[in-house]
Amino acid sequence: MEEAAVQAELGTGPAAKMAQTNPLPGPTGPWKITAYDQENFQGKKMEFTSACPTIIECGFENIRSLKVESGAWIGYEHTSFCGQQFILERGEYPRWDAWSGSNAYHTERLMSFRPICCANHKESKMTVFEKENFMGRQWELSDDYPSLQAMGWGNNEVGSMKVQCGAWVCYQYPGYRGYQYILESDHHGGDYKHWREWGSHAQTFQVQSIRRVQQ
User: Which PROSITE patterns does the record associate with it (predicted)?
Assistant: First the structure.
């Protein structure tokens, strides 16, 4: 099948309803990803340079492998940017466990994805707060932390976060394991006052490792 450049834009319906939590970036930028409907880069393939709210409309039932050629992306378990999130940085992902890593539960579904417009690895900065609504103890981060507790954070939870610059991946467990939450400076104005704003799959304040998104 011939490769095609897909320019998907957010319209109405379920995708529009998700806009508050996962607003869609503009369609232009230095991003390129190639998706395949079979593992190990086999089967039907299609090239994307912008967000895709549903791969079903592109003739795919599921994405089983992909190559990120430029930019950083977020993949989602369900259509309309819902469900479990997966960070997709430059490189090759021959099967689903290459992007899902060690999650709280494994899913082989990847049904929508979008680029991360604000990724800025060198300039990334965020502040974590002990309690929701930016209350309690706070700690400013500008580096990767495989274990927040080992670096002096008092517990295994983070109440709220402010992303001043760049984009970050927060993980449920130490060592960059468990559920992934991608937080961006250009979403919510960079303010994430409660775990409900981290993603539609978030169910707890538990965050134990954080790293910057690679450009």
Answer: CRYSTALLIN_BETA_GAMMA
